[in-house]
Specification:
heterodimer; A: alpha+beta; Calcium-transporting ATPase, cytoplasmic transduction domain A; Rossmann fold; 4 domains; seven-stranded mixed β-sheet; 23 strands; disordered N terminus; B: mainly alpha; globular
Chain lengths: 710, 557
């Protein structure tokens, strides 16, 4: 089950997209109704229609008309008509390609949703029959499930709809959605009660209440976003569209008024050439690629297991300057590790370590393993040949301790202070008050530093008991966290950790994780207050959270990022959901958000730079027939007027070969300071745009000039 | 030699502007921030029933601007039509309705396009009660709108953008009148005429007679230049020795044209508390002005043809007392502001020199622009440049802590459309109506060739951008041209003002405190490069095609 998505992911570099269907889809976008939302492309479409009509009508009215005093070669109008349609085709093809890429990825998600029957509980009674063993089951199609209804999952079932677990605990395989192969625990009543359609229950039995209508589940939204089928323009996209519309409109106006204005001194420019002028100079490329950058960014987020609720949220996240992390179970690995051995008076560290290791051999918990690792690390023998055989006593909620009863009669235990004291008492070997006092002092100081004190004790075969010392356990930071925080720092983003832990623990964890700032002993209200304080200081704040108490903070933050395991209300308060519950994914999100904007900036700069060259290719050619002196402006030395015009139109098609990959993969976005980024991008895409256009148009001209008549 | 003269003239100008930049800019900032009303001001508020401490929303501000300008327009129109009944009218008759309309529109729109020959058309009453008054208040309207935009950018979560009446009165009483008085004294001392003598007939050395028109020239000259108006007392404008008697007065007049627009950048820096951004704006203006001056001078100095080569340069139509440098510097300044004053015959410039003058206007008149209008036009262009810079570095574009959203971009996108639409649309309309076209081609243009096209383009661009300068060969006093150019002037002025005020309101509403700290490097050279590039990119291409059949066809033979 885990394999499907992984296959797509690992083979991502060679996702095969058949050209035929993509072209067909691109052609379907020629429908003016579809183009309506993109006025610049609609204009190109109108230009194509106009030139084609002229090309068809021309033979009836006596062949190709001269333009601006220049005679044009036979078939010139048809050539321009075809070229104009090709400009439009490359534009729509770009979007089809981006959508196709998204679809290739979401195919696995769709497969995960393949039809099966759901076990709906028709009259579920949570009070008297919480486990639903006596409740009637109805087999229904998942699409018929409605919010508020209940269904039963038995191990091996695929989850038919998004919902909250109301009874039971189970381990789920969410790899189909998140790409993470490790199973996760979901249980009722806590912050981790949400299950997603398309995931699979691996063990146990749970009852789930439906929270989203099938078709509107997380998976469905992901599919729609990644395929780019339901896109709304985000604010910056709208702002840029306004600028593009202004540029386009001015050139349409130039084309409409030109012949009339120049009529006293020059012969009119032919309609196909006016159309070519408009098509080359309006920002067709950017208009086409705007949606491509959006879809491509969504796709990149999906690959990283992040769900964004709108393009607006993605644009906003690029501006984030402060990130608040909720510590609980997100920055730390969630299980605790031994940090050192603190022997009591009269006990050597080695004794304590050996006994602690005895207690932990055979202990499969993370704490037990970490004790052995620590002893190993400190150089104490952990595979003592004299290691006592015997039975391992595993941890239970009643005794709250674990250990070993060795064959020689030695018993060793580790556990909470009170449990150990109780055990010693039970064995009739209660330590004296001074020892207890010293022990208590140690455990208190460990606890005050935010650690969990684990007390180690032994009772010999003679019934002589003693307390050896304390092993502090502490939350450990996930190994990936420090480097991610460094990355965040490089992005110029401040990180703050908010936690309910005491400030000392918080300080220790923050230092270890590389988080700049922390707030300890935080109440839910504190979280909101910190968000507001940061916002008032002029920051743009993102906050990650997964608990119910995070919801107000997530809603207040400019960008709320919920973990997928969070309750629906929490996810609803957020703009984004991280599917595999790794809050450091925020770094990726900010990265992608900024890259998307930088890509758009690069595209528009490149296009404007291109235009400067196109002016010098097109404008002198318009009236060169009437005023031969204008050839002095033909700085590229293009061969002839028709060649100059055709080469410029062909360049508009060819340049998409550079621009489409740029839009799909995003421009390289470095973390250097904004000044350097600005100069570099201006240089690369501004100067580069001029050079590419000059060389490109000239090269095309060198080929076009060999066509008879040009 | 010429190079030395060109650099010296420029250097003198730069030093003069630099000396007054800070004190004048800071003083003007004080004018707008000082909470106390002067005694005269309070009296005027009381008489007019204005509550000076009650501010207006951008819509309210706009309505007052429009009403105020409309009343000014009607009064000016009425004065011209009723000229024979007014005192000091020198026996001149009423001005024709279309010319009166054109002149009223032109003065209310701070354009001062003069389709007439003043000494034969306007008496002292119209000149002083009508034209001079509008020369002051139309400049003040532009300044007031610019300050409203700056307030919008600097306020936080505000619904209002200032009180127009207070701005109007303070600009006039505290800035324009004192400076004009100062300038008038200097001009009179330098030999500019100031009297009420009317026409004096004198006998010349050769025994012939000549009619010398006197008049209150110096006072009009002061506001003509300081208010970037350009409406001269004489037809020859600043080429006339009574208006502009000597080379140094010529330089002083050039200085008067640009002193307030440049200093208002300092005012902006003071009000916005961002001198670094102000320096970027200053650099942008200076670069454009110097490049325009440089290319213009170069084309005039190297003017082709036999006569110019014999004379050493294209001296035709230029005053010997100013020379090439004095003429090109003045022309660069007048086309970079909404000045429109001229001291040489643009029609006699080389075709490429004419093109530079046209392009300099086409850039939007931001180098340094008209009083106020230069600042607000440049800020609109800055909004677009900041947006693109923000995209390039992957951040949300913010200007002075205000986000540039779709709404502001839409307004900015409309602003940059106004001038090309009006100029190209006006030309196209004129050429599309057969009767009008025939008249323009046959009568208005000197000849129906590329030079005639240049004249046509110049006229419409000058009107659309509210410049007011013209190529003398173009006969513009026809009913059609008076009407359409008047309409274009009004639309070019007040459409932009409406959009700018809408932008001011939109920015003012934004809450500064919740917006991230702007960290775009707006004070760095790369931003200036981007801004200059964008200004050129936005403006030039739309006129490039028509220029190919005008000055380019004439200049590239």
């Amino acid at each position: 089950m885990t394999t499907k998505v992984n296959q797509v992911q690992t083979s991502e570099g060679r996702v095969f997209l058949p050209l035929g269907p993509l072209l067909l889809e691109a052609l379907k976008k020629f429908n003016p109704k579809v183009l309506w939302s993109n006025p610049v492309l609609l204009l190109t479409w109108a230009g194509g229609v106009l030139t084609t009509v002229v090309a068809i009508a021309e033979p009836i009215f006596g062949g190709v008309v001269a333009s601006g005093g220049t005679r044009l070669p036979h078939g010139f109008t048809w050539t321009l008509a075809v070229a104009t349609w090709l400009v439009l085709l490359t534009a729509t093809f770009a979007e089809s390609l981006a959508q196709g890429r998204g679809r290739a990825h979401t195919k696995a998600l769709r497969d995960a949703k393949s039809p099966f029957a759901a076990r709906r509980l028709s009259r579920y009674d949570p009070r008297h029959d919480a486990s639903a063993h006596q409740t009637e089951l109805i087999r229904v199609d998942p699409v018929d499930l409605r919010p508020g209804q209940f269904f039963l999952l038995i191990s091996g079932d695929t989850v038919p709809a998004d919902g909250d677990i109301v009874w039971g605990v189970g381990s789920f395989d969410e790899s189909a959605i998140t790409g993470e192969s490790a199973p996760v625990i979901r249980e009722s009543g806590g912050d981790r009660r949400a299950v997603m359609a398309g995931t699979k229950l691996l063990s146990d039995r749970v009852v789930v209440r439906v929270t989203a209508t099938p078709g509107h589940t997380a998976t469905d939204r992901m599919i729609a976003l990644a395929e780019g089928t339901h896109r709304h323009k985000a604010p910056k996209e709208l702002a840029l569209s306004a600028l593009l519309a202004s540029f386009s409109l001015s050139f349409v106006f130039v084309a409409l008024t030109l012949n009339v204005i120049v009529s006293p001194v020059a012969a009119p420019v032919s309609i196909p050439i006016l159309v070519a002028l408009v098509v080359c100079l309006i920002p067709t490329e950017i208009a086409a690629l705007m949606s491509v950058t959006g879809i491509a960014s969504m796709y990149q987020l999906l690959q990283r297991g992040v769900l964004v609720d709108s393009g607006q949220a993605l644009e906003a996240v690029g501006d984030v300057t402060t990130v608040l992390f909720d510590k609980t179970g997100t920055i730390t690995s969630g299980h605790r590790e031994a940090t050192r051995f603190i022997p009591l008076d009269g006990v050597t560290e080695e004794d304590l370590a050996r006994t602690a290791v005895y207690c932990s051999i055979g202990d499969k918990t993370a704490e037990g393993e970490s004790i052995i690792d620590l002893a190993d690390h400190l150089g104490y023998a952990t595979s003592d040949p004299e290691a006592p055989a015997g039975d391992f006593i595993s941890f239970s909620a009643q005794t709250r301790l674990s250990g070993r009863d060795c064959a020689q009669g030695l018993s060793v235990r580790k556990g909470a202070e009170s449990a150990i004291v109780a055990w010693l008492k039970h064995c009739g070997a209660q330590p004296d008050a001074s020892v207890l006092g010293q022990l208590h002092a140690q455990t208190t100081s460990v606890a005050r530093l935010g650690g969990t004190p684990l007390v180690v004790a032994e009772v010999t075969a003679q019934g002589k008991g003693r307390v050896l010392g304390v092993v502090p356990l502490r939350d450990v930071v996930k190994p990936s966290v420090p480097s991610r925080m460094q990355h965040l720092h490089d992005l110029g983003v401040k990180s703050i950790m908010i936690t309910g832990d005491n400030p000392l623990t918080a300080a220790a964890i923050a230092a270890e994780a590389g988080i700049a700032d922390f707030v300890g002993d935080a109440t839910p209200q504190d979280k909101v207050d910190v968000v507001v304080a940061e916002q008032n200081a002029g920051h743009f704040v993102a906050m990650s959270g997964d608990g119910m108490n995070d919801a107000p903070g997530l809603a207040q933050a400019d960008c709320g990022v919920a973990m997928n395991s969070a309750a629906p209300a929490v996810r609803h308060a957020a703009n984004m959901v991280i599917l595999d519950d790794d809050p450091t994914k925020i770094v990726d999100i900010i990265d992608i958000g900024r890259r998307q904007q930088a890509t758009r900036g690069a595209l528009i700069t490149f296009n404007m730079a291109n235009d400067i060259v196109r002016y010098f290719a097109l404008f002198p050619a318009l009236f060169a027939g009437t005023f031969p002196g204008l050839n002095a402006l033909n700085v590229l030395h293009l061969h002839s007027v028709p060649s100059a015009i055709l080469s410029t139109v062909i360049f508009s098609i060819a340049v998409m070969g550079i621009l489409i990959p740029l839009a799909l993969f995003g421009v390289p976005y470095s973390l250097a300071n904004v000044e350097r980024v600005l100069s570099r991008n201006l240089l690369y895409y501004g100067l580069g745009g001029i050079l590419v256009a000059a060389i490109g148009i000239k090269l095309i001209d060198l080929i076009v000039m060999w066509i008879p008549g040009y | 030699m010429e190079l030395f003269a060109a650099v010296t003239a420029l250097f003198t100008l730069v030093v003069a502007v630099a000396v007054t930049y800070r004190p004048l800019g800071d003083y003007m900032a004080w004018v707008f921030t000082n909470p106390r009303h002067g005694k005269v001001e309070s009296l005027i508020y009381r008489v007019c029933g204005v509550k000076p401490d009650k501010e207006q929303t951008w819509k309210g501000y706009l309505v007052v601007v429009l009403v105020f300008s409309a009343v000014g327009f009607l009064m000016l129109y009425g004065l011209q039509r009723l000229q024979p009944m007014l005192p000091y009218s020198l026996g001149l008759g009423p001005i024709s309705p279309d010319l009166a309309f054109n002149t009223a529109a032109s003065y209310v729109g701070n354009t001062n396009w003069q389709a007439y020959s003043p000494e034969h058309t306007t008496g002292y009453a119209v000149q002083m009660a009508g034209l001079a008054v509008q020369s002051y208040v139309s400049a003040a309207v532009g300044f007031a709108v610019a300050i409203a935009l700056v307030r919008g950018l600097t306020r936080s979560a505000s619904t209002t953008v200032g009180n127009f009446w207070v701005d109007m009165l303070r600009i006039n009483l505290r800035i324009l009148l004192p400076l004009s008085a100062l300038a008038t004294v200097v001009l009179i001392a330098a030999g500019v005429v100031q009297n009420f003598d009317g026409f004096t007939t004198v006998e010349t050395l050769t025994g012939g007679t000549q009619i010398i028109p006197g008049g209150p020239v110096a006072s009009q000259e002061a506001i003509k230049m300081l208010g970037t108006n350009g409406g001269g007392f004489y037809n020859a404008n600043s080429a006339h020795p009574f208006e502009n008697p000597s080379a140094w007065v010529n330089l002083f007049q050039t200085y008067m044209l640009i002193v307030i627009p440049f200093a208002s950048i300092r005012t902006f820096g003071r009000l916005a508390n961002d001198f670094r951004l102000a320096r970027s704006l200053l650099a942008t203006m200076a670069i454009l002005l110097v490049v325009a001056y440089g290319t213009l001078t170069w084309f005039e100095l190297s003017g082709g043809g036999l006569a110019p080569q014999a004379a050493g340069a294209a001296m035709e139509g230029k005053e010997v007392r100013f020379g090439i440098i004095g003429s090109t510097l003045f022309t660069a300044a007048t086309t970079g502001t909404t000045g429109g004053a001229t001291n040489s015959m643009l029609g006699s410039y080389t075709p490429l020199g004419q093109m530079v003058a046209i392009l300099h206007m086409v850039l939007g008149e931001v180098s340094p622009g008209g009083v106020g209008s230069g600042l607000y036009t440049l800020l609109v262009l800055v909004v677009i440049a900041v947006f693109i810079a923000g995209l390039l570095v992957g951040r949300t574009p913010a200007l002075l802590g205000k986000r540039i959203t779709a709404r502001e971009m839409k307004l900015a996108a409309l602003v940059i459309l106004v001038m090309p639409m009006l100029a190209l649309g006006g030309m196209a309309l004129s050429m599309a109506i057969p009767g009008v076209r025939a008249e323009i081609v046959a009568n208005s243009m000197t000849d129906p060739d590329s030079q005639g096209m240049t004249e046509l383009i110049y006229a419409f661009v000058s009107a659309a951008i509210n410049n007011g300068s013209a190529m003398a060969g173009f006969a513009a006093d026809t009913p059609w041209l008076n009407t359409i150019l008047g309409v274009i002037i009004l639309l070019g002025r007040f459409l932009v003002i409406a959009l700018v005020l809408a932008m001011a309101g939109s920015f003012a509403r934004q809450d500064r405190s919740t917006v991230m700290v702007a960290d775009l490097p707006l004070h760095r050279p790369q931003f200036v490069v981007l801004l200059v590039g964008l200004i050129v990119f936005i403006a030039v291409p739309t006129f490039f095609p028509v220029l190919t059949v005008g000055p380019l066809a004439g200049g590239l033979r």
